[in-house]
Design goal:
By secondary structure, the chain is mainly beta. The protein has one domain: Jelly Rolls. The protein is 5% helix and 43% strand. The protein contains two helices and 13 strands; from the N terminus they run ββααβββββββββββ. A hairpin with a 4-residue loop joins strand 11 and strand 12.
Length: 161
């Protein structure tokens, strides 16, 4: 059995250059031995588990949709605002919700205290993200975490022959 205590897991902070996007993450799966760089599912684990904390007035990341990943959320404390294709919904402790591949979403703090939740993701190989607001894509590239690119729709054979 692999076992960790949340109090022993380092909390990693990440924020955007202008500070609109700001989060703290305890990656429980990594603490339990997940190898983030491996494509071997035995080393990747079949799912990821993290506890996320978003400070007052901040958003986790831009509005996005995963190509292959499903994410399940369980709110621990605070109040959040969850954006999806239908608008925004406020959530609080005890709320659970899920986003399937292709369902764009965004989480933000909507309260005065930190917004804290668990996220469980099924960790598929080859997942990418699409950012509808900016029309960008984040795609995996061997040897690096991801590549961000912008693209316009094109014919499948354009530039190929």
């Amino acid at each position: 059995m692999r076992k960790v205590n949340l109090s022993e897991i380092n909390e990693v902070e990440r924020k955007s250059p202008k500070g609109n996007f700001h989060k703290f993450v305890k990656d429980i799966s990594v603490a339990l031995g997940r190898d983030k760089d491996s494509l071997d599912l035995a080393k990747r684990h079949p799912f990821d588990l993290a506890v996320v904390r978003i400070p007052k007035g901040k958003t986790y990341c831009p509005y996005h949709a995963h190509s292959a990943e499903t994410e399940l959320y369980l709110v621990i404390s605070g109040r959040g605002r969850v954006r999806d294709r239908n608008g925004s919904t406020e959530v609080s402790a005890g709320a659970a919700f899920v986003f399937a591949p292709g369902e764009a979403h965004q989480l933000a703090n909507a309260g005065e205290e930190d917004f804290v939740y668990y996220v469980i993701a099924d960790n598929p190989r080859g997942d990418s993200c699409y950012y509808p607001d900016s029309r960008k894509f984040a795609v995996a590239k061997e040897g690096s975490e991801e590549v961000i690119t912008k693209a316009d729709e094109a014919d499948y054979f354009e530039g190929e022959e």
